[in-house]
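S1.2 Input.
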Amino acid sequence: MFRLFVALFMTPFIIVPCMLSSVAMSEQPNIVWISCEDISPHLGCYGDPHAITPNLDKLAQEGTRYTNAFTTAGVCAPCRSAIITGMYQNSIGTHHMRCNATLPTWLKPFPVYLREAGYYCTNNSKTDYQFSKPAKKEIWDICGAKGHWKNRPQKSQPFFAVFNFTGCHESGIASESKYKSVTEDLLPSQRQNPKELTTLPPYYPDTTITREDWKRNYELITAMDAWAGDLIQQLKDAGEYDNTIIIYWSDHGVGLPRAKRWLYDSGTHIPLIIRVPEKFQKSLDISSLATDNQLISAVDFAPTVLNIAGIDPPSYLQGRAFLGLHLSPPRKFVYGARDRMDERYDIIRTVRGPQYRYIRNFEPLKPYYQYMNTPEKGATMQEIRKKEASGQLDPVMALFSAHEKPVEELYDTHADPFEIHNLADDPAFSQRLSEMRHALSEWQNEIGDVGLIPEAEIEILEQDAGSRFAILQSTTKNSSTEKRLALLVDIATSASEGPAGIPKLLDALQNEDASIRYWAATGIGNIGPAATSTLKRVVESLNDPSPSVRIAAARAVAKLGSPEEALPVLEAELQSDHQWGRLAAAIVLDEMDEEARPALPSLQQALLNQPNKYIVRVANRAINELENTDHQVP
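S1.3 Output.
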């Protein structure tokens, strides 16, 4: 259904405008978003025993607290692109951290529709949308530090105003100076005693240093609560409080390891509080509920805001309105994706229901804690590394310091809120596992999961397709979009299913689609020595026209026991015209450890004149490991 609509929407002579709702409203509500960064539901109204959050607790008392709200990624920029567009980041190509995607020309960030309907729209001030067109000035009336509803030219004009608190970002925990600056106005009674905190997750070392980080998280949240209270008071002072729907949310979970960047509840379960003034409750058919347990995704925010503003959400949106009139059926699942995080790729997808979470690791040979510059600077991450080095990891910590990941993970979040008991191999849960595995495949096919295409290949295909979204929403020469998607999802999934998949992978290695060949080569590399019989076929792929396939084939050839044949290909790719191919090659060399020593001069050369800092970071890490040095790069 979605692809059928997109085909109609993209037809040149069909205009599909965003119409005002046929249900007339006597008055358009003002809407204020109070958003913050990097916090899980560590608020008093969510039952946290240590939280000091009186303002948000009061907002929840007057409104509705949503208990099952989740973001689409465990990191800010990908999920914020989904929030502003109402479309999944791995559908429109904004899934990799710090990328710049080309959007379809028909895709409008939802504030554009609000402005067309007469709203004054401001953003103060974070964007992080991962696209440069449309520009900020095309989306917002004002975007920046001066963005405020008070500045609208006519006081009778309805407004949509976004305020973003950046003080509780992970840097507020990691940086002592930022932590002190953000929390400088807290009273002694608002401070936390780290020794008394009872909520420290079991996958962290219980040390003084780790507890200091956990304490800082709480105090930053208290500072954020005071900021939110001030915004609410401004509405009251101006007489706009009872004319304004207030929506409070966080972009993803707490800014610590195994939370931020990850797809567990610790990284994707977010607080969501909405207060609808009594005057709008009847016209919007909204009852006043203290709590609402329906499943909500952050991709639902855009259609919901349009719906409560009296605007029919465009049919192409992939989220659903969960407030207002004419709602679609409630969700059975919410979905999430992890892709490149800074300098490291790890393709992971998740399906979350009311009780169970399913995770598919498409790259299970990569460890949970890949070395990344930014998180490695954090004190908690450093404590984890110390425990790893000393061999003093307890069983729960050891789960996430393993060198490999399970292909599938399944958790009962009611019985196991920290998601540490993987049920994927338990026969008692085989039906649940099969259901959620199927749901994931259906979702990937429905949205066109462009995240399964290597990033270097995306940049190549984007030029002809016109947008990243169109790569998987148009037809190829010999197969329909549906068949291409289905095969891509199938082969990417088969790449982590072991030796039984060798015949399918060898066949896919000859496919005309470079992305399918990439996953075929990746799958053979995942199998390793058990696939030695495929070596001759894989060596032929070292000359593939696609840089991503050449790199995947080189990785496979090395794992099949012939690193000397792989190294020249990887060294050449370090100097290619494709920046993300360079990064992928550097990552493979880093993973080869001592086998990469002959390529040391090429890695040293890769420290210079690169198009992005991520290539330098990985090359530097590989050199440090080979040379037993500790050189630091930005």
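S1.4 Remarks. Confidence is low (pLDDT under 50) at residues 11-17.
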